[in-house]
Amino acid sequence: MTTITTRTVEYPADGLTMIGHLALPAGVDRRPAVLLGPEGMGLSDVERRRADALAELGYVALAFDLHGGRYLSDPEEMLARCLPLLADPDRMRGIGHAALDVLRTEARTDPDRIAAIGYGTGGAIALELGRDGVNLRAIGTVNATTTGRPGEAAHVRCPVWAGVGSEDPIMPPAQRNAFTAEMQAAGVDWRLTVYGGALHAFHHPPVGHPTVPGVGYHPQHAQRAWRDVVDLLTECLPVTKDLGV
Questions:
Q1: Taking each helix axis from N to C terminus, what angle separates 89-105 and 75-86, rounded to the nearest 10 degrees?
Q2: Alpha-carbon distance 138 to 230, whole Å?
Q3: CB 155 within 8 A of CB 185
Q4: C-alpha–C-alpha distance, residues 53 and 58, integer Å
């Protein structure tokens, strides 16, 4: 296994002090980087481990925070914060840009080679960065076939991949169709993968607290979705090794 280093990073966003998780690959050279957004509950060890896995593949990875260092295990509290956030593209963009600035200023990051990957609310934020015209190499989302303000998808400058469970009641077929229609009308290079039989948050291992209805873990599709994310990065943001290290 490749040796990586990790550290927490604090930065302001949305009126809060966010606490992200930065994972760095071995070496001293600049590397392509990935911004990684969590589900609506917030940053947890699930996303930290994913950032670490990306660093092992050679990426600088920042798993960003949504709630000022808190993980919202109460579904009502989570919805009370996330629903207004999801209805406010400017707030989502503010959270995304703040994390992106941290990632860009990291000495190991190649600022011209960054992708955004997100799950649920974190995926919606990744999409809003694209709609805001941010120079990204790829956007990948799971459980986040969200639509934006009319016409703004035309600002997306990179391929977009979205994964969703076929039985996800939060992202049902009508929502998926609206998302793909938006991407197609804007001329985006888009792909949608529908995982048969999967519910919302099918990628997330079971948690020891109540969840909103329609959530369920699907281990096979979780592995497939991760491979699809890695394939997207391999295609759009390949890692080149520093031969001097």
A1: 90
A2: 11
A3: no
A4: 9
Q: CB under 8 Å to 181, separation ≥6 — which residues?
A: none
Dihedral, CA of residue 64, residue 204, residue 3 and residue 240, to nearest 10: -70
Question: Tens digits of per-residue pLDDT, 64-115?
Answer: 999 999 999 999 999 999 999 999 999 999 999 999 999 999 999 999 999 9
**Cβ-contact 186, 156 below 8 angstroms:** yes
Confidence of residue 240 (pLDDT cuts 50, 70, 90): confident
Work out whether strand 16-24 and strand 5-13 pair parallel, antiparallel, or are unpaired: antiparallel
Helix (H) or strand (E) holding 181: helix 173-185
Q: Cα–Cα distances in Å, from 16 out to 10, 69, 106, 144, 201?
A: 10, 9, 21, 24, 26
CB 88 within 8 A of CB 81: no
Query: Tokens 């077929």 map to which residue?
Result: 173
Closest CA to 113 of 245, 244, 240, 243: 240
What distance in Å separates the CA atoms of residue 99 and residue 225, rounded to the nearest whole number? 24
Q: What span, in angstroms and rounded, lies between the C-alpha atoms of 31 and 113?
A: 8
Helix, strand, coil percentages for the chain (3-state, nearest 5): 35, 25, 40
Of 191-195, 232-236, 237-241, the least confident: 237-241
